[in-house]
Amino acid sequence: MPFLTIKTNGFSNDNKLVEKAANVVADALGKPVGYVCAEIKYSSDLAFAGSKQKIGAWIEIASIGFRDRQQVVDVLTDFAVENLNAEKELVCIKLTDLPALDVAHGGYLFG
What we know:
The chain is an alpha/beta fold. The chain has helices at residues 17-29, 69-84, and strands spanning 3-8, 37-42, 57-63, 91-97, 104-105, 108-109. The chain has a 4-stranded mixed sheet with strand order 2-1-3-4, covered by helices on one side. Strands 5-6 form a two-stranded antiparallel sheet.
């Protein structure tokens, strides 16, 4: 079950952007979108490279395994640049590989 959180000082008028993000993650990980939990948080109080004027994204993704970590990084970076107007060099991503025994969906553990 992938968990995606994006924190950004960028902005989008796309009210379906979080759904788009969930689909992007599902495709990149080769997992059903029905298992993806995604959120996007906007805050003008985020500073990137020491400035609130620079647009960036702080992305955290946790999943039971990653097929191709670099592909996930590429896809999420492109998503932030294209949809949030983030500067590519200001997109920071944290990937966390979760043990299946530590993840449940619908009341059932994966491991």
